Amino acid sequence: PGVLVIHEWWGLNDYAKQRARMLAELGYVAFAADMYGDGQVTDNPKQAGEWMQEVTVDPEGWRARARLGLQQLLDSGKVADGQLAAIGYCFGGATVLQMSYDNAPVKGVVSFHGALPAAPAEMKGKIQPRILVLHGQADTFVAPEVVTNFRNKLEEAGADWEMNTYGGARHGFTNPAADEIGEKHSMPIRYDQQADEDSWQRMKKFLNDIFS
Fold first, then answer.
1. Residue 28 and residue 78 in contact, taking contact as beta carbons nearer than 8 Å
2. For burial by CB atoms within 10 Å, which of 53, 114, 153, 170 has the most?
3. pTM of the model
């Protein structure tokens, strides 16, 4: 099976590549896509926000970029027929949710501390991929009302979804570099080892389930 990895808003950095390697060690064909192009990477939140905005301002173009990443994975010639999934972190988490709303040819998507775009009303009864959302309760980047609306819209859409919330976990809880970057730029992000390890185990079971 093949798994597409979508990076945080920082760009395709070593962290996203490391997650792809970890998936490969589990036996998957993994590809970490570059959603910004030209290998653009930063640890400056202002720059990251600008790059992300350039992509997300056009939802159709955003979804098209993600599909191109999926196509690169398919073009490897190493992926079992019809056996695809996508995972993403932060901006990447929102990206894989958009892929599910676009019915990209994946069996399931996993969002780690991602932004939570609501399912479009026109997708009621039509969302085919399974959805797993791994969220930090203390993530101040996603307001409580956004979380509530996200859940409600998935229910209204009749999607096959699950959301696991980790108490005390902040935005970026899976990334060991979050503490240093957060301190440098006064951002409310923090690594949480337990939430990181638990969410990875939940993802592993989810992938096993959808590919079984």
1. no
2. 114
3. 0.97
d(CA 45, CA 102): 28
Give the distance from CA 133 to its chain's centroid: 9
Beta strands in the chain (DSSP E): 2-6, 29-33, 84-89, 108-112, 130-136, 161-166
Using the structure block, give the residue that is written with the tokens 């939940």: 202
Q: Which residues contact 91 (CB under 8 A, 6 or more apart)?
A: 6, 7, 8, 9, 35, 52, 55, 56, 114, 115
Beta bridge partners of 3: 30, 85
Going by C-beta distance under 8 Å and a sequence separation of 6 or more, which residues neighbour residue 183? none
Query: Smallest Cα–Cα separation from 116: which of 130, 124, 104, 136?
Result: 136
pLDDT 10s digit of each residue in the chain, 212 long? 999 999 999 999 999 999 999 999 999 999 999 999 999 999 999 999 999 999 999 999 999 999 999 999 999 999 999 999 999 999 999 999 999 999 999 999 999 999 999 999 999 999 999 999 999 999 999 999 999 999 999 999 999 999 999 999 999 999 999 999 999 999 999 999 999 999 999 999 999 999 99
Query: What is the spatial distance between Cα 72 and Cα 160, in angstroms, rounded to a whole number?
Result: 27
Measured distance CA(132)–CA(111) in Å, rounded: 6
